[in-house]
Amino acid sequence: MIIELAILGVGVGALSGFFGIGGGTVTVPILLYLGFGIKEAIGISVMQMVVGSLMAAWIHHKKQTYSVGEIQYFGYGGIFGAILGGILVKLLHESILEWLFLGIVAFTLGRLALSSPVPTRPEVVNRPLYTAIGGGIGIFSGMLGVGGSILMTPVLVSFMGFPLKKASAVGLFFVMFTSVSAFITLSWLGLVNYQAGMIMALSSIIGIIGGIWLLNKIQVNHYKSVLVVFYIIIFVITAYKLIVE
Fold first, then answer.
1. Which residues contact 164 (CB under 8 A, 6 or more apart)?
2. CB 34 within 8 A of CB 40
3. Mean pLDDT on 76-89
4. 20 near 169, Cβ under 8 Å?
5. What angle do CA 24, 173, 1 make, to 5 degrees?
6. What are the pLDDT digits (tens) for 11-48?
7. In this structure, how many other beta carbons lie within 10 angstroms of the beta carbon of residue 232?
8. What per-residue string of b and e applies to 197-210 under the rule 16 or more CB within 10 Å gives b?
9. What b/e sequence results for 115-149 when a residue is b if at least 16 CB atoms lie within 10 Å of its CB, and e otherwise?
10. In the predicted model, what is the mean pLDDT of residues 130-136?
11. pLDDT, averaged across the chain
12. Which residues contact 155 (CB under 8 A, 6 or more apart)?
């Protein structure tokens, strides 16, 4: 299982850096196939996201992809939302979590498919709104172990006027706040497999570096197409597992 987790970590890290996701959209379904329960899979996913998002935030800071001054307010809201979401993991039945996960992927897929990769409106700058958005998305992050960027990216592109690549980078920055908050909460509740999580976390660093490098090379129109295909694959995999079981 160590080899499988290490390979998964590298792959998830690459996807995380490229798509601007925390990695839970990939990690949770695959860990379910490897035999982990949904709650244990969420704990492992969150631990990987802590390390991966910190590395990604450092790289994007060096490249000056965004200004931390304003977007940090997404993270402040996400911290409190993720705490509430982590508590809900303990209270809700596993089947509810799985169907919520599928619903989030479906929403994201629809928003991305209909949105333009080039902004059609001025970029909204509003700190209280950033905090509110971060709080709402943080709840889903803590509940589902998906970091929150799976929702953050389409929201920023569709409603806030952010360019697609910048939205992806901001989404991964947001993961840094929610994943740390969710990790602390899930650890307190005894829902984290530390050994499996550390294997995935350390191996994902290699993938993160490669994924961000590729993000900066690809044209934005091609990037959107690849992003939509990626979410279709995740949706099909998750839906298949829920229906079969």
1. 115, 117, 118, 153, 157, 220, 223, 224, 227
2. no
3. 84
4. yes
5. 30
6. 999 998 998 887 877 788 889 889 998 889 989 998 99
7. 14
8. bbbbbbbbbebbee
9. bebebeeeeeeeeeebbebbbbbbbbbbbbbbbbb
10. 92
11. 86
12. 111, 133, 137
Check residue 92 and report its DSSP letter. S
Nearest CA to 27 among 223, 245, 196, 242?
196
Angle between helices 194-215 and 38-63 (to 10 degrees): 40
Q: For residue 105, what pLDDT band results from cuts at 50, 70 and 90? A: confident
Q: Is the whole model's pTM more than 0.90, yes or no?
A: no
pLDDT at 236 over 80: yes
In this predicted model, what pLDDT tens digit does every residue of 185-225 receive, in sequence order?
Answer: 889 989 899 999 999 999 999 999 999 999 999 998 899 89
Judge whether 198 and 183 are in contact, CB under 8 Å: no
Q: Which of 66, 25, 72, 40 is nearest to 178 (CA)?
A: 72
**Separation CA 240–CA 223 (nearest Å):** 26
Nearest to 39 by CA among 169, 180, 220, 193: 193
Is the CB of residue 185 less than 8 Å from the CB of residue 162? Answer: no
Q: Distances in Å between the alpha carbon of 6 and those of 120, 189, 201?
A: 41, 25, 9
Helix axes 220-244, 24-33, angle to 10 degrees: 30
